[in-house]
Amino acid sequence: MFKASELARRDFINIVDGRRLGPVVDLHIDEKGSVTALVVRKGRRYFGLFRWGRDLIIPWQQVKKIGVDAVLVEMMPQE
């Protein structure tokens, strides 16, 4: 069991290509209270204010391992 705030402090790494995906900024939760997806901030900020790029939604089924320092996910690279 873990807190949602703990996820925000962990690195999210794609095991397919080894890339760091970014920080979690939101969770999708169903009516039963189960997490169905993670929303990862994808994009850059300009002077900490303006952000461009899309957020990445990671379905919970693609989360393979939650470790102490990192979360491993399996996502195929987008063309």
UniProtKB/TrEMBL annotation:
The record's InterPro entries line, in alphabetical order, gives: PRC-brl_dom, PRC_barrel-like_sf, Spore_YlmC/YmxH
- Give the signal peptide range: none
Q: Which residues form the PRC-barrel domain?
A: 2-74
The UniProt entry, under Pfam families, shows: PRC
Q: Which PANTHER family match?
A: SPORULATION PROTEIN YLMC-RELATED (PTHR40061)
Name of protein: YlmC/YmxH family sporulation protein
